[in-house]
Amino acid sequence: MPKRSKVVELLNAQSPIDIIAAKGWVRTRRDSKDFSFIELNDGSCLTNIQVIADSILTNYDAIKTITTGSAISVEGKLVRSPGSGQQWEIQATNIDVIGHAPDSYPLQKKRHSDEFLRTIAHLRPRTNKYGALFRIRSQLSYAIHRFFQERGFWYIHTPIVTGADCEGAGEMFSVTTLDLSNVPKKDSHVDYAHDFFGKEAKLTVSGQLSAEMLALALGEVYTFGPTFRAENSNTSRHISEFWMVEPEMAFYELNDDMDIAEEFVRYLATYAIEECSEDLALFARFVDKTLMNTLENIASNEFIRLPYTEAIGILENSGGSFEFDVAWGKDLQSEHERYLTECHFRRPVIVYDYPKDIKAFYMRLNDDGKTVTAMDVLVPRVGEIVGGSQREERYDVLKARIEEMGLSEQDYWWYLDSRRFGSAPHSGFGLGFERFLMLITGITNIRDVIPFPRTPKHLEF
RNA sequence: UCCCCGGUAGCUCAGCUGGUAGAGCGGGUGGCUGUUAACCACUAGGUCGGCGGUUCGAGUCCGUCCCGGGGAGCCA
């Protein structure tokens, strides 16, 4: 048997090939008078290859029982197709059924709702839409590495399991080997001294604090890995386990941070347009008609940069009626972010210099004493896609902020240490990969851009 | 967690003011055909999400629970 070719290679052939082999899953089969048409897909690209199974094949009776979803192996020659609609097709000389799919196979040759497909997440990668999505997901993962590697960033790995209360960014999942039906206690509290690590352990909500330590040694670094939030959030934009990209750069101030964040987002949009065109076209056609305009807009326009105080002014003078009041000192609500990026500017907006009371302790305090060097990149439809800041590098100021926020200085001893020994200005940001995929594909529910989503009360598959 | 909407055939849905259920696709059978979401004919398939209530009678009205979706908060 000849070496198996990928369908994408066959479709891109320059000339006929006498002997080829292909394997994949049947999308549909149609009978003609003396032969059968089989649409074969192996995941290597969106397009199927058409296989002609002539009735003279010795197992033609078996071939006629091939159903949608079956796995088959095909040998034959690659020929120019006499039919319209495809350039190449396989004239089969032998077809074997590797795995039959009975007619209870849930995927049909028709559009299914995303809600239904979510209930069969183990099979939905076999649809055109989800196949395309997961290929784009892979390509953009690669593009993320390429962007940073091209710029001399080092890829680092920060812990998944982390000590308690050291990050303060939402609810965390506990990690324990304690017998939950017989928890050791001391003064009516759980005694973590008996737990695996001898102290309370959690799943990470961010690798940032660790990444800062590496940035203050390697210069420019980034993480790209799983992140966990135990928030009881039930929305189309939240999942409990997601992937986040977190670059961290020494000697970068806030403007440098905004520069690299903008360059990064535009690089990825450009990459998607150029390298994922076939799969992207599916989303532009069936999911969001305005998708290509949105992507071109991101790729080719400079982002608006807007201090928080000016953003508040725009919102106050907008004349728009918002459900939530706009006032200096309050965080921007989803509706406010969307107004800025979708209505007022109609392009991505970076809002920066937020009031210190609504932002994290590690953000650098500005000279006005009221704001910190936070910056959020807001994009149409998805809202906040990047959140970042210049970090507080001054030991005394950072220590005061930790105390002010009621955090424990001891928990942060190593973080503070980095400000005692050769401290330097540095900055970073985080980008939620799934939210970014929503932006790129137009998919509106975050559960549909990750293979097996984890959300409250859902741990199937 | 809060607010709103929904749950009818394998899938997508229709079913007006209460009178015991329909279509398209999919499946099966037959026909036709270098077809391509193929086409034509026939056919099978549903205790209308669960429980309780109102009524002579409930898919339809009421209560409650479960599940799904949208929005909000939290955030990425």
Unreliable stretches covering 5 or more consecutive residues: none
Number of DSSP-assigned strands: 18
Q: How many distinct domains?
A: 2
CATH homologous superfamily label of the largest domain: Bira Bifunctional Protein, Domain 2
Summed over residues and divided by their number, the pLDDT gives a mean of: 91
Tell me about this structure.
The structure is a single chain. This protein is an alpha+beta fold and 461 residues long. The strands form four sheets. Strands 6-12-13-18-17-16-15-14 form an eight-stranded mixed β-sheet. Strands 1-2-3-5-4 form a five-stranded mixed beta barrel. It has a three-stranded antiparallel β-sheet with strand order 7-11-8, with no helix packed on it. Helices cover 29% and strands 26% of the residues. The protein has two domains: 7-99, OB fold (Dihydrolipoamide Acetyltransferase, E2P) (Beta Barrel); 126-170 and 205-448, BirA Bifunctional Protein, domain 2 (2-Layer Sandwich), CATH 3.30.930.10. Strand 4 and strand 5 (88-99) form a beta hairpin. The longest helix is centred in the N-terminal third of the chain and has 23 residues, at 128-150. The radius of gyration is 27 Å and the shape is elongated. The protein is built from 13 helices and 18 strands.
Show the helix and strand layout.
Elements: H1 7-11, E1 17-31, E2 35-41, E3 49-54, H2 60-63, E4 71-80, E5 88-99, H3 114-119, H4 128-150, E6 154-155, E7 161-163, E8 174-175, E9 185-186, E10 189-190, E11 201-203, H5 208-218, E12 220-228, E13 241-250, H6 254-275, H7 277-286, H8 291-300, E14 304-307, H9 308-316, H10 334-344, E15 349-355, E16 371-379, E17 383-390, H11 395-404, H12 413-417, E18 426-432, H13 433-441
Parallel strand pairs: 3-5, 6-12, 14-15
Antiparallel strand pairs: 1-2, 1-4, 2-3, 4-5, 7-11, 8-11, 9-10, 12-13, 13-18, 15-16, 16-17, 17-18
Helix pairs in contact: 4-6, 4-7, 6-8
This protein binds one RNA strand of 76 nucleotides through residues 28, 30-33, 35-37, 39, 48, 50, 52, 68, 81-86, 103-104, 106-113, 115-116, 118-119, 169-171, 205-206, 227, 229, 231-239, 242, 244, 323-324, 333-335, 383-387, 430-436, 445-446.
